[in-house]
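Entry 14. Ran structure prediction on the chain below.
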Amino acid sequence: MVQEVEMTSLRFDESLVNGHFNDILNSFRIYVEDIQPLIINIEELKSEFPSEILNEIRAMYTHLCRAYMAGTDDDVVSNIEKLKTHTKRALLDCYKNSCIVIIDQRKFFFQKYKGVDLSL
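Output, structure tokens:
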């Protein structure tokens, strides 16, 4: 079924993407269940949104859009694979930033309580 997007003159055929719905759904699941909670945690602890994660999320959704606008199955497959790759990178960037935040908090804690007997 060919649909026309009303805001622009873009046209896409979603039937090419339908065979890859599980891959798209899995990337979205990873975003909702894994990436987003880590981002919230990083923002709470660091008070900023790491730009490398934002770039990967932008790339994820860019490839999702390109998959929907692709004219051939090869283009769809290529963009779905790139979507999956950027999803993995975003998740790894979240883990990396979480580790950095935890290490920074640990350093701050030990600097703050330097010379204090914490043996009790």
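The chain has a mean pLDDT of 88. Will compare against last week's run tomorrow.
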